[in-house]
From TrEMBL:
Limits of the CRAL-TRIO domain: 117-262
PROSITE patterns per the UniProt record, alphabetical: CRAL_TRIO (PS50191)
PANTHER family: PHOSPHATIDYLINOSITOL TRANSFER PROTEIN CSR1, PHOSPHATIDYLINOSITOL TRANSFER PROTEIN CSR1-RELATED
Pfam family, one: CRAL_TRIO_N
Gene3D superfamilies: CRAL-TRIO lipid binding domain (3.40.525.10)
Name of this protein: CRAL-TRIO domain-containing protein
Length: 374
C-alpha cells in the first residue's frame, strides 16, 4: 500500500473526498461535544492534543483515511473508532511511553531480540522481525510486553517514507515451543493494530511454521479481520522469502547477510540529552504553544474547506498549514519523544534532537535539515 493506491491521499475519488470531509466534520463535532470547545479551539482540548500528537509528522488526512479504508468508508464507524483511539491513547498513557522511550519499557526484554526492525521489503515497506522463540510466557509481566508492543508500533511510524504507508511483519516460528505461545500477548498485538493503528499492515509473512501448532493458528486466525487474513502468507523456503524481501537486508537468522539484531542501549550522550531536554520546561512550553497555534491554524483553514470553499487559494493555504504543522511538531519532538536504538545505528535520522540540545547547552542556533527517516 502506498499513498498512490486508490483511496489513499494521492488517489481520491470524489466519493472518497466527500467521505473524508464528512469524517473531519463529525470528528471535530465529536471532540467538541466531549470537551465543550468549538471549531479550531479543540486544539486546546485533551482529545484535540491526542489527535495531533497521533498525527505526528504525517499529513492529518492520511491518518483519517486509514480509518475510512479500514471501516470500508463508513463515516460514522470511522468517527467512533477515532474517538475510541484518542481515549485509549489518553487512558493508556501513550504520550508518557513516547516521552520516556526505551526508559519506559524493559531494556532486558528489548535485548532478547524478540522484535526489531531491519531493512525494507521489495515494495519499500519497513520490515518488522518477530521471533516468538525469544518470548517465554511469564518471563516478563504482561504490562511490560504490552508497553514494548505499543512502543514498537509507534517507532515503526518513523520508519515510513512517503509514499509508503504500511509495514511488513515476519513471524519466524522456528524453534517455537508451547512455552512460547502467549495468546494474551498475541491478542493484544492484534487488537492494538486493528483498532488503534488501522490499515498499517502490508504483509504478514509466517516463516518456519511448525504444523503441530495448526490448532493454535486457527484460533489466532479467528481474531484477525478478513482484510488482515488476506495479507498472511506462509513462507517455507529462503527462495520464497527472497521474492518479497531482498535477503541481503535481513539478519543471518532469517537467511540474510546482516548481523543478527543486538540492542544498543542509550549512551551517556543520550542520557545527558534526555535529562537536559526534560529539565527545559520553558522550552517545552514554548514548543507546545507553537504546536497548538499550528493546529488551530490548520483547523481554521480545514473548516473553511469543509464548508465548501475549494478555491485554489484555500487548497494552497491548507497545504501550507500542513507544512507549518509538521514543522511545529518537529520542534516539539525532542520534548515529547526520545532517540532510540534506530537513531543510534543511523536508521532514523532526526537532527532536531541534536539541534535542540546544542541550542540549550551551547546556545547554538544553527539550522539543520528537516527530519528524514531511513
Amino acid at each position: 500500500m502506498t499513498s498512490n493506491n486508490p483511496g489513499h491521499i494521492n488517489n481520491l475519488s470524489r466519493a472518497h473526498t466527500n467521505a473524508l470531509k464528512q469524517t473531519w466534520i463529525g470528528l471535530i463535532d465529536a471532540i467538541s461535544k466531549e470537551t465543550s470547545l468549538q471549531g479550531k479551539q479543540i486544539a486546546d482540548s485533551v482529545y484535540g492534543d491526542e489527535l495531533f500528537r497521533a498525527v505526528g509528522y504525517d499529513n492529518p488526512d492520511v491518518l483519517v483515511l486509514r480509518w475510512l479504508r479500514s471501516r470500508k468508508w463508513n463515516v460514522n464507524a470511522s468517527i467512533n473508532h477515532i474517538m475510541e483511539t484518542l481515549k485509549w491513547r489518553h487512558d493508556w498513557g501513550v504520550a508518557e511511553i513516547l516521552a520516556n522511550g526505551e526508559r519506559a519499557v524493559s531494556q532486558e526484554e528489548i535485548s532478547t531480540g524478540k522484535t526489531y526492525f531491519m531493512g525494507r521489503d521489495r515494495a519499500g515497506r519497513p520490515v518488522c522481525c518477530i521471533h516468538p522463540k525469544e518470548h517465554i510466557k511469564g518471563q516478563f509481566p504482561h504490562e511490560f510486553s504490552e508497553k514494548l508492543t505499543v512502543f514498537c508500533v509507534e517507532t515503526y511510524r518513523k520508519l515510513l517514507q512517503p509514499p509508503i504507508e504500511a509495514v511488513t511483519i515476519i513471524f519466524d516460528m522456528g524453534g517455537c515451543e508451547t512455552k512460547n505461545m502467549d495468546f494474551h500477548q498475541i491478542k493484544f498485538l492484534i487488537t492494538v493494530i486493528d483498532k488503534y493503528y488501522p490499515d498499517s499492515l502490508g504483509l504478514i509473512l509466517v516463516l518456519n511454521f511448525p504444523w503441530i501448532f495448526n490448532k493454535s493458528w486457527m484460533l489466532v486466525k479467528s481474531w484477525l479481520s478478513p482484510s488482515v487474513q488476506k495479507k498472511v502468507r506462509f513462507i517455507r523456503t529462503a527462495e520464497e522469502l527472497s521474492e518479497v524481501i531482498d535477503l541481503s537486508v535481513l539478519p543471518k537468522r532469517l537467511f540474510g547477510t546482516q548481523p543478527d539484531f543486538k540492542f544498543i542501549p542509550p549512551t551517556a550522550e543520550d542520557e545527558a540529552m534526555f535529562n537536559a531536554l526534560r529539565a527545559d520546561t520553558k522550552g517545552k512550553a514554548i514548543a507546545e504553544a507553537a504546536h497548538r497555534d499550528a493546529v488551530r491554524n490548520y483547523l481554521s483553514i480545514t473548516i473553511q474547506w469543509l464548508n465548501g470553499n475549494e478555491n485554489r487559494n484555500i487548497l494552497l493555504e491548507r497545504k501550507k498549514a500542513r507544512k507549518q504543522l509538521r514543522h511545529a511538531f518537529e520542534q516539539l519532538s525532542p520534548y515529547i519523544s526520545t532517540r532510540t536504538h534506530y537513531h543510534r545505528v543511523g536508521v532514523i535520522k532526526e537532527p532536531i534532537f541534536q539541534v535542540a540540545y546544542d541550542k540549550l547547552v551551547h546556545g547554538n542556533d544553527k539550522e539543520e535539515p528537516s527530519v528524514t527517516f531511513f
